[in-house]
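Predict the structure of 1-phosphofructokinase.
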Amino acid sequence: MIVTVTPNPSLDRTYEVPSLERGDVIRATGERVDPGGKGVNVSRAVAAAGRRTVAVLPLGGAPGALVAELLDAQGIEVARVPVAGATRSNIALAEADGVLTKINAPGPELSPAEQELLLETVREQSGDADWIACCGSLPRGLTPSWYADLVARAHAAGARIALDTSGPALLSALRERPDVVKPNAEELAEAVGRNLSTVGDALKAAEELRARGAGAVLASLGADGQLLVDAEGAWFADARVDVVRSNVGAGDASLAGFLIAGGSGPRALASAVAHGAAAVRLPGSVMPTPADLAPAAVTVATEVPTDRELTEPVS
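Done. Here is the predicted structure for 1-phosphofructokinase.
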């Protein structure tokens, strides 16, 4: 069973549009409303794979009630933490050529009592969990050290932690030695404070995060593939994707695939890449089912191609 924690969940509206022209009236060709937030997406992907998951969420107002209703319809258990502020609503505009424009609201501010209740709810849910996936940005009111506190409490309860966040929250949490961290290329570059131009640059950055406390680093390099670095070594994997429909939630699907497959080693990396590649072929933030996966299209290399230049270098 996989528990997910999303401190700043959302109600996500995705509109498919031919193209964006500033100042014009644009007619959408498709529309979706989904429960959102990185941890929510991980739970949705886990549930789509037929596995049990519990989503720990601070929810408030009508948007929060709709998030819980949508998750319940998908067979996802919700451990709801009531908050006074309304859950945020986000908008994504997906163009026909695959370009995505997102407008993310800040979300409610959590009081000290609500913050403590959220931590306590995670502790209560951690007893039967194989993994706890802590994902996304922190809402107003939570300091960057909040994830570090969560990791410490979860470890004290004997749970394994996968952390997908960025900036000061990621750096602060490293001191509590999360079992897995999952940065994308931009987050990895930000964490080490330097540019990434090659896969080798990403490998060195991942090794630096391990030296700071991460047990393993699962780094998403976008269209270039994914990199896994842990105590046993390093692996690189990629999969060809001919048509990208939407990359919303693709990284979350990858993390779900990684954890579903055990959360360590090249087999889990291959599962992560297969789930991420399937997700970008689907509309909005739809999570892939086993029928959407193409595991034979994934290539895993034990020798990391350090000289390969990144399609989109990060500066």
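The first strand starts at residue 2 and ends at 5.
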